[in-house]
Amino acid sequence: MRSLVDRHAGFLAALREAGLPVSTAEGLDAVRAMRLLDLMDRASLRAAYAATLVKRPAHRDQFDMLFDLWFPAALGDGSGRRTDRPARRLDGDGKPVPAALDPGVQERRRELADLLLEGDEAGLRRFARDAVSSYGRTPGQESWFSSGVLRTLSPETLMAGLLNAVLHGQERGGLAERVARRTFRDRISRFERMVAGEVRRRIAEDTGVERTARLSVRPPLERLDFHRANRADLDRLRREVYPLARRLATRLAQKQRAGSRGRLDFRRTVRASLGSGGVPLTTHHRPRRPHRPELVILCDASDSVSAFANFTLLLTFALREQFSRVRAFAFIDGIDEITKYFAPGVDVADAMARMAREADLVWVTGRTNYGRAIKVFEDRYADAIGPRTSLLVLGDARSNYGELSLPALTAMADRARHAYWLNPEPRGVWDTGDSAASRYGAVVPMFECRNLAQLTAFVEELA
Description:
Layout: H1 4-17, H2 24-34, H3 42-53, H4 60-70, H5 103-118, H6 121-135, H7 146-153, H8 159-167, H9 175-207, H10 209-216, H11 231-259, H12 266-273, E1 294-300, H13 306-320, E2 325-331, E3 335-337, H14 348-358, H15 370-380, E4 389-394, H16 406-415, E5 418-423, H17 437-441, E6 446-448, H18 452-461
Parallel strand pairs: 1-2, 1-4, 4-5, 5-6
Antiparallel strand pairs: 2-3
Helix pairs in contact: 1-4, 2-3, 5-6, 6-7, 6-9, 8-9, 9-10, 11-13, 11-18, 13-14, 15-16
């Protein structure tokens, strides 16, 4: 058994490992708050930890999942299990009979429907614990899984009966049905999360809470590595990327305006010199005309960085609205302009699929060749980069031991007003294997960019 101190320290370490910013001082604040609580009151303990450790609403889901692992509501089967329930019926071959033919399963479904109808949160939690004990084992009894519980009870198929119970013959399709449907959908989703949480608890008891936390708790969005992002994550990333794109455009424009002064204002300079006997001690310049900068993006679209390429498209979508002109190019061992795929309102996944079908990115082998891509870009699209252009290269700098074309990249960087390289690999693996990160980084400043937090740090560093 862990002591409370060990459990507290382990919980804080798990929060940090999951990407939540938790300082030592905040951990001490949590301890001070616990001194004022009844530690047997789990809800108050959760609230105290959340108040002292959680800084952003987006981090609350990760916090709750870890709290339930480190401070579980029950041990083993828990006090809510009913041992008088019949086990799952088996056919002559020893396999479970279909749920529709199993009286025990149908009894459970009726009980679940009643709990969903009443919205009994505590009852649903006890029912979820009981259901996992009965139906949550894998066939070989070696682990736990939630899909077996949800497949057996099929809570989503109870919707029609629930609506009939509350509408009582009212006209269907109206506001009352929409409200009821949304209410029951939320309750079913909560029940499914309860089942998933109970399964995690049982797995943690069998394999260890630390290992379970590492495998089951996803980091918050801003620290989620792009290669782990699914389609839903990309939708959320799109909302976060737009304000970052505006800030990036603003920072680049500010650096551009600060790079040189405007033309000499002769009249103001002469007028100011009258105070010093006609000697122009101070020169005055006309303000430079503000203009939105131009941007050229070169993106590695190979399989090794495909998830990062998805994010690159998100970033390009967002940046297109902030710059006077954006031209985007993708490459593997061939290179092609992909700006035309970024029409307003186009879904990112659809744009990626269209790019894969139509863009001419493969020359011979289909293996990443930075050197050839850079050389072909310089031969075909050299006019894309001018004195007002910011060049942004996105890729892992792994060229399969091929030519690097450093002189061509140097010429591109020299023509651009700014040039930056975002690398999705951890800095610790740069220059390993076929990585040419340092050699490319000597020409174009290279930044590690694996998640939204690092992209934010890159934008802030441009100030």
